Amino acid sequence: MKTFRSGALLIAVGLLAAPCFAHHMAVIVSEENTVQNLTSTQLGKIFRSETKKWPSGKNITLVLHRSSPGETVTMAHVNRISTQQWEAWINEHQDSVKLLDSDEEVLSYVASTPGAVGLVDVRSVNDRVKVVHVDGKLPLEAGYLPH
Hints:
Blueprint: H1 2-17, E1 25-30, E2 37-38, H2 40-47, E3 61-65, H3 69-78, H4 83-92, E4 97-100, H5 103-112, E5 116-121, E6 129-131, E7 133-134
Helix pairs in contact: 3-4
């Protein structure tokens, strides 16, 4: 019985210590984009459509999911607003945001659109896109994006 409790305790501690990847998002751009690092302030301005061009002069296309709880939480935090305010902003700006249904669609669109920027679950990232550092950090590093 003692061995069972010790084993169960080790398993529980291991599960609790393992990172939860449910809401770890990655900011992605096409491989052609020269941007490698953005501050969270710059990212917020891009996501609010206040910054409309990359430093290269190329137009920015914001690519988001129609429905993604992790993305909604992340975007609300980056923009310093509630999730309800973010959802209202999306509804008001549907003409300036490309809304897609899955990470695969976001990855494909961003990979084929040089000015596009999007968010995907970190587990979906592939070699067709580039992950942008935020405040000098990459996904899964403490302080990258809220999760």
